[in-house]
Amino acid sequence: MTAATPQATARWHLWLPLVLFGAFVVLLLYGLLRPADRDIKSAMIGKPLPQFALRPAAEGLPGLSFADMADGKPKLLNIFASWCVPCAAEAPQLAQLRASGVEVVGVAIRDKPDDLKRFLTRNGNPYSRIGADDASAIQFEIGSSGVPESFVIDGKGIIRYQHIGDIRADQVATIVTKVREAGQ
Amino acid sequence: MKRALLILALVAAPALADDSMPAAPYAYVQLENPAQEAKAKALMETIRCLQCQGQSIADSDAQIAGDLRSQVRIRIKNGEDPEAIRSWLVDRYGDYVSFAPRVNSLTWPLFAAPLALIGLAFVLLRRRFAKGGA
Amino acid sequence: MIATLGLAALWLAAALAALQLLGGFLALRSPENPLAMAVRPIAVVQGGLVAVAMICLVVVFCQTDLSVLLVAMNSHSAKPLLYKFAGAWGNHEGSMLLWVTIMAMAGGFVALVERRLPEPTILATLAAQAFVSLGFYAFLLFASNPFTRLDPVPVEGQGLNPLLQDPGLAFHPPTLYIGYVGLSIAFSFAVGALLTRAVSPTFARAMRPWVLGAWIFLTLGITFGSYWAYYELGWGGWWFWDPVENASLMPWLAATALLHSVSVLAARNALRAWTVMLGVVAFSMSMVGTFLVRSGILISVHAFAVDPTRGQFILALLAINIGAALTIFALRAATVTEGERFALTSREGALVFNNVMLTGALGIVLIGTLYPLVAETMGAQVSVGPPYFNPATAIFVLPMLVVLAIGPLLRWRRDSMGRIGKLLLAPLALGVVALGLFALQPIHLLPLLGLGLAAALVVATLIPLWGRNLRTLKLPTWGMVMAHFGVALALAGMASDSAFTSEKLVAANVGDKVELGPWSITFDRVEPVPGPNWTALEATLHASYAGGEPIELKPQARAFWSPPQPTTESALATRWNGQLYTVLGEQAEDGRWQLRLWWKPFVTLIWLGGMLVALGGFLALLGRVASDLRRLVAIDKIAYRRTRQGR
Predict the structure, then answer these.
(1) Which entry of A124, C168, C415, C489 is 20 to 30 Å from C528 by CA?
(2) Could you give phi then psi for residue A151, rounded to 5 degrees?
(3) C587 contact residues in B (CB cutoff 8 A)
(4) What's the pTM?
């Protein structure tokens, strides 16, 4: 009688490795089947933009500051650069957004006035203002990890929505809705 | 394979982000004060590069890693505490950006693991040596 | 033609593996079954056939036979022969064929030479080996056939990824693979012994050379891989706790534990169930490693041939093989008695401590590597990196290294610290002095502890030679001492690198002079240099150590053009007391060049130590195999005499 009890517990212990291994396989299976979403999302949604003032990035267009963003109207803040290939690809979509009444402002990352001018001539200019960010400083402040990225900012300068990567044609409607929501 | 190559390219490539701007002031320049530089270096080794993902900003040629190194060094130079800079980054990018996990309701098992493993070994071995002591 | 031959050989080998499994299974019931009698020859022929398939693949690569899809995808007629040759396994399909080849040849070798164990155990072992092999044959033939043909035949191949065109490719992956796959033999032995209830010291002695062999190759593979990353990535780091690095470290930790527990089982008939368990764990870590590297489920710097669908197949194989083994373990381990008992202060006690600590470190690495995935199931993204791994593994590794100084001096069964205390005085004193000296400098806690411990260990690991006749000392003892000394050196290198590295980042004009620690470095010129498939900007530096004769260094910034990819090629100056590491960066607008310079005192001890550890393993293997062979010959002689007397 007394001898049987420890043996019973011992047997139960022996199944433990298999159970742990089963959990391990399930974890790996989850890792394999999950959608491969490797984007780093900003943790600044719902928080205000920092106080900033960027010098004008292109001739003939004003620069960008916090006061320009918090003027009561919602805007789309587009982080881009003339040297970035997908940024050229999203130009028609930005033009479309502009046409549907969304105010688009730009932050040009590590860009030169001449390059930027050429870029705007070639791809059209949807921006009402472009600020120059030469050290990715605003990017870090709002939790953006690459170009292009677009942020919906409401009239008080609070970040409402982040779009990572270039805006595709079928995503324009979503962004228009997000900007409208931010305006309410 | 394509994705693997892409990752390799991101790791290796300053040329992928093909801008012609000079590097940020402290991207490839050390702080004048060695103690501050040591602090900055220790912090940079534990911050994830946002584009290359597998590497820290201290080990990357990516442009954005250089910009972030510059930010870190300037903030350290201005007397900011390294942990305050880490929090500033975590506030913006989430826990993912820091290689040093913080203890919270999600990560406590990581920190309990060493204790749990030692406890387990103790339980398994105590029986063994107690019986076999003679 | 050759490709067809290779494919036919592969199919035949797979069929033989099925027969081998069946025969081994029947042998469990009735050893006299004719198929059971044929298991050994089948295993040998199977090994030969896969070797033929592998040779066929190497031949089609060397000939650049573009009618083979794999060759067309990964090779090019104008590639140097070394990379054509190594290109055979520089891709997913070829590397899996290499995996099966090593596995089947090892199985054939066991069938040919292993005669110490009871026959049913060997047959069960070969059946287990066939079971594992069959899964990989299926993977090869149905999901990654290396011999798939291409019609029409293309004019030229696509070439090999330039980043892989490094002599490292010819050496690093096959070395790690031999290690990974060698552990499958230990796994099969463990399963065979469980099935036939034959866990014994003889079993441990039969398994030991395989564990040792696999472990030597894992050690070499990791050491070399670390050095490759160190000089290739261009920032002076040699270990990043990256998932792919951890994937190679985990089987090594398990194999190291197994190596020590097998000694206890062989010498003292203790730790029986535990050793069997480690045999299963070690190979499962190999498969987990392969899975992590191939599936790409974790982000890594060293991503290679990533494909989630292949991941599913490997995961299925992992689940079936290890799941089956653990089920057999659960059913049978209760019948494996615990074996001999021993006191805490004894050789066994120290080895148990070693096992507990290595397993603990393995647990930490496994948990840390997979925790980001666990967090994702709860909808959060976290990173686990050096700030976690360094201290968490040190909790286990540092105490283990303290016991490393003591364990080899202890006697089996029962001993007292009083007996060996005097021997340890010298290393203890040295360690304390080193700690005291370095504590005065601004060094972080972990490197400081590492330096003190390394100072003590460098002496302590040599004490087992004290008072022994070095001429008659057995090879395995030499091997142990050398491996432990290697660990001490590697620890010294790691600690010294973290504690004493000095770094200088400068923007320099041609002609400038830079001071770095004891070095004085002149920046002489930058010139374009053409390569076979790249162009580089090459700097010429002259570095003089403490005013001595200048050494020339030529770091490059390379641009490959197909596919376009920039890489940095560091230039290293190695001295007995460390390495100067130089990298050429970009040119700024003002014409100055970015130079990155590091002086890393004693960093080379890391890899020298790793090589010594492997060499120690090799000596031990040599000693074990030699004495096994002598015993085998002696047994044969006795058997021969008996048959003659019988007549």
Answers:
(1) C168
(2) -120, 135
(3) none
(4) 0.92
